[in-house]
Amino acid sequence: MAMPDRSAEQEALAKAESDIADGERRVTDQIVLIETLRRDGHDVSEAEKLLQTFRATLVAWYGHRDEILLELARQGALPSTHVQPNATMKE
């Protein structure tokens, strides 16, 4: 089995970080939207379902990023102390 290319892993890490940042923005935007809808007396059940989907996706993206970090650490591209899994989100 061929060893993954370090530059490809670093590119994947940059993409994962970008996806996470986008996901975090979507979660924040959805929370604000839910608060606005609720304040205005609208049903928020579908918006809350979508928020849960965003959060679940974000957790998966954290896990993917952590796998990339572990691979880079294994390759010696990062100190292993830099790798701290972050697959849980704070509400």
Topology:
Layout: H1 6-39, H2 45-74
Q: Provide the succession of SSEs.
A: HH
The residue-averaged pLDDT reads 87
Q: How many E-type strands?
A: 0
Number of contiguous helices: 2
Structural class: mainly alpha
Estimate the helix proportion, in percent: over 70%
The low-pLDDT segments are: 87-91
Largest sheet: none
Quote the beta fraction: under 5%
Rounded to an integer in angstroms, the radius of gyration calculated over CA atoms is 17 Å
Could you tell me how far the N terminus lies from the C terminus, measured between alpha carbons in angstroms? 40 Å
**Inertia-based shape:** rod-shaped
Explained architecture:
The protein is mainly alpha-helical and 91 residues long. It is 70% helix and 0% strand. The chain has helices at 6-39, 45-74. The longest helix is centred in the first third of the chain and has 34 residues, at 6-39. Residues 87-91 have low confidence and may be disordered.
Short summary of the structure?
Helix 1 runs antiparallel to helix 2.
Keywords:
single chain; 91 residues; mainly alpha; 2 helices; 0% strand; rod-shaped; disordered C terminus
